[in-house]
Design goal:
heterodimer, A: mainly beta, Immunoglobulin-like, six-stranded mixed β-sheet, five-stranded antiparallel β-sheet, B: mainly beta, seven-stranded mixed β-sheet, four-stranded antiparallel β-sheet, 11 strands
Chain lengths: ~110, ~110
Amino acid sequence: EDQVTQSPEALRLQEGESSSLNCSYTVSGLRGLFWYRQDPGKGPEFLFTLYSAGEEKEKERLKATLTKKESFLHITAPKPEDSATYLCAVQAILTGGGNKLTFGTGTQLKVEL
Amino acid sequence: ETGVTQTPRHLVMGMTNKKSLKCEQHLGHNAMYWYKQSAKKPLELMFVYNFKEQTENNSVPSRFSPECPNSSHLFLHLHTLQPEDSALYLCASSQAGGFGNTIYFGEGSWLTVV
């Protein structure tokens, strides 16, 4: 059974203070690792997909990296608008069609002035 | 504004009521999903529809009844719910099959069972 563990559970940063969020996973065969951002009261918003170890993707102040056992979401010089819950998920293909994402519990990030 | 629209955004219902959640996707996808999000718990997959056919039921109680009349619309019919069913219900869609197909979520329907 696929498992995803995210740490820390919550993170408080000062504006401009860079840090990293961790996502450890156990899967029978990685099809894709996804990062989403979720604001309070809203649905998850897609950020990145990573497929293989060594892959990196960037978007503004965010950079996602992947190894064989974990993924990191690096946040460089964060701003208050980066405050959100960041969700990590691994993908499995369903035999009947469609995809299944197994999610972690998320890291709640708060960036203060 | 997202490509997946859910209504209503908020719903309060009694344990003996019958209500429905509606989802519509404008992304041209052919797979649709219902997920449940409870406080402090990971998102849980409930149902998957692939080209209108249900392909996954993740041991969901029968008081939740999904319906997918076409690839763009998805419903979740609710009846005789329990207070522990109060949660955020998220609809999502993607292209079917193949790895790397991104799943896009709607804004969710907040359900409170009283």
